[in-house]
Amino acid sequence: MASQPALPPNVHISRHPCLHAKLSQLRSATTNSRDTNRLIHEIALIVGCEALAGAVEVRRTGVVPIQTLLPSPVPINHLGLFREPTTLDPVEYYNNLPQAHTTRSSAYNPAAAELAILLDPVIATGGTSEAAIQTLRDWGVRRVLVVCVLGSVPGLRRAAEEWAEGTELWVGAVDDEVDGRGMIKPGIGDVGDRLFLTLGK
Predict the structure, then answer these.
(1) CA 121, CA 110: separation in Å to the nearest integer?
(2) Average pLDDT in the 78-83 region?
(3) Tens digit of each residue's pLDDT (9 = 90 or more) over 39-49
(4) Is the CB of residue 10 less than 8 Å from the CB of residue 35?
(5) How, if at all, do strands 122-123 and 143-152 pair?
(6) 5: which DSSP letter?
(7) 132: closest CA among 153, 142, 146?
């Protein structure tokens, strides 16, 4: 196994042998949508088990539901972001984080979770993860765990540095580069397209 590039200390890379076998299958261009979904679920489950202690969920495309990892029900909130394809900037399209009625003098938000788990299948440029971490921090969480199947070195650095003292990233594997379209090289392709058969949109 090649040595991993230096990443911030709040980035943790899985060394689980089953995960690496599953990632090899996921990288194959012949893997169909059903198997892509299953493999992402299984990899996220492995990474999530390595990372988790308790949570509230912020979900992105196709990652394991948090209830699979926890012994009892927890509040589930959703924050939806996508990456605009030409500028690669994050765009928030959905946010149901509960807001408490607080006074302007109070920075504390009693509706915010102590811990938020951000589920992001792929961190390529790091922009959407960075934006989600900013939103969660502004909401009032005290700690963010990011669970990711695959990340790029520059994307993981960007996300990890956004709120280093309050965020930990747990990732299945790391690839070195991102191309001009914001895709990880060699990567696993566009996860949303592979999951939902929207190739060529």
Answers:
(1) 29
(2) 90
(3) 999 999 999 88
(4) no
(5) parallel
(6) P
(7) 146
